[in-house]
Amino acid sequence: MAELSEQQQAFVDSIPVARMATADRNCVPHVVPVCFVVLGDCLYVTVDEKPKATCRPLKRVRNVLENSRVSVIVDRYDDDWSRLAWVMLHGSAEILAAGEEHDNAQILLAGRYSQYREMDLSPLPVIAMRISRVASWGDLSVAGRGR
After folding, report:
1. How many CA atoms lie within 13 Å of 76's alpha carbon, on the beta-carbon side?
2. pLDDT of residue 21
3. Closest CA to 72 of 64, 62, 84
4. What are the strands of the beta sheet with 18-23, ordered from one edge?
5. What does the pLDDT look like over 131-146, one tens digit per residue?
6. Which residues, in sequence order, are CB contacts of 19 under 8 Å at separation 6+?
7. CB 134 within 8 A of CB 12
8. Which domains does the chain have, with CATH numbers?
9. pLDDT reported for residue 123
């Protein structure tokens, strides 16, 4: 397992949306923006209440069940290209349906995103990514972001 440096963690904590890449059993990629939280060597993403309810799990959940390899990029774009930066996380993921880790992840996510405080997340699954590799590039400073 790999943990982020203090600078990488501060940068990741300052960015509200990441992009999660999963792939199905045939290695067909699927990338979606996600709300997330990183704690130690784990990244958590909840499956929140979707406006279009369906009994079929989301594609990212189906992919994790078929192929546990996941990558996440947390990035900052700026017209001032000296401010460009990203942190990329690689690892394997599992679906948490219940339990202490599931519940703690939901609490952390609701603490980070006010929208989640209005939802009943308790019965919804969490994607738990076990971070095995971290890479970063660019200006990871968070002071004076301005945007």
Report:
1. 26
2. 98
3. 64
4. 29-34, 18-23, 69-76, 85-96, 126-138, 42-46, 37-39
5. 999 999 999 998 655 4
6. 31, 32, 33, 34, 72, 73, 75
7. no
8. 6-138 (2.30.110.10)
9. 87
